[in-house]
Amino acid sequence: MFNMKQIYLLILMLILVVNLFGQTTGELTVTVTTSNAGGVFAPKNIVAVWIEDESENFVKTLYAYTGTYKTHLNIWEASSGFNTTDAITGATYTGHTSRDYVWNGKNAAGLVMADGNYRLRIELTDKNATGNYATYSFIKGLESQSLNPANQPSFSNVSISWMPESSDITAKRNTDLLLITPNPTTGIINIKGKNIKNVEVLNITGQTVYKGKMTTIDISDKPQGLYIVKVTDDNGSYTRKILKQ
To answer: pLDDT for 32-66, tens place per residue?
Structure first.
């Protein structure tokens, strides 16, 4: 039989193991407005977005819009070796705008990464040389996190949001009880469920753009990007991510 001290030590060890090896599923969403890096090819530009762990080890390339000019993204090359496994790739950008990027919490092999501190990195150039790059630290874990880092050269209006998923059982239950369509949307959001008591729509920075009881909501006048829809009914609260195009 275990005495109280042994039980306490076992509980402590279990907590440490959970904290050390936790692998929370979820989604990191990023919005950033890009601008010129002072090159002769502006406004055309190439961009790479990738994830590193806190020890600066490469995890996964998220986006690589590089065309045939990737060799000028020197910071990304040094980190990834141009690894684009399971990344979204595309041609050279022709200009600048607000852009959305997403990470599913997995590495290039498709495995969920351990919870902890990570680095989001973005590099942009519009010349035959290194342009501008930025690094943003965030925490992947059980708690949601929203960040609004200061502007840097070529990268402004940055918002970074980590949102953990609920358990599989809860997610299935939520899906059965609540339906939000269409997704993506051009502005209209339709919510179907039973005994809905409250609806709240937030932008990626956490600002409320709608709050009330309506089940058809129009956000046509809002900027494109990711939005969070929170719905409360008799059974609890549910959260969905909606992309406005």
So the answer is: 999 999 999 999 999 999 999 999 999 999 999 99
> Quick one: CA torsion of 56, 60, 63, 68, rounded to 10 degrees?
90
Asked if 20 and 91 touch (Cβ cutoff 8 Å), the reply is no
Asked, as a colleague might, if the bond just before 182 is cis with ω within 30 of 0, I would say yes
Give me the residues paired with residue 52 across strands.
Answer: 58, 119
Domain boundary assignment for the chain = 23-164, 168-244
- DSSP-derived letter for residue 112 is B
Question: Quick check: do 23-164 and 168-244 share a fold?
Answer: yes
The residues facing 198 across adjacent strands are 232
Domain 23-164 falls under CATH 1.10.3470: no
- The helix/strand count (H/E) of the chain reads as 3, 16
Per residue in 148-180, pLDDT (tens digit) is 999 999 999 998 988 887 544 344 444 456 788
Distance CA 106, CA 112 (A): 4
Domain 168-244 top-level CATH class:
mainly beta
Mean pLDDT of 125-145: 94
Q: Can you give the pTM of this predicted structure? A: 0.66
Q: What is the pLDDT of residue 75?
A: 97
In the 8-state DSSP scheme, what is residue 173?
H
Query: Using the 8-state DSSP alphabet, how is residue 76 labeled?
Result: H
Distance CA 37, CA 42 (A): 8
Q: What would the pLDDT profile of 7-16 be if each residue is shown by its tens digit?
A: 555 554 544 4
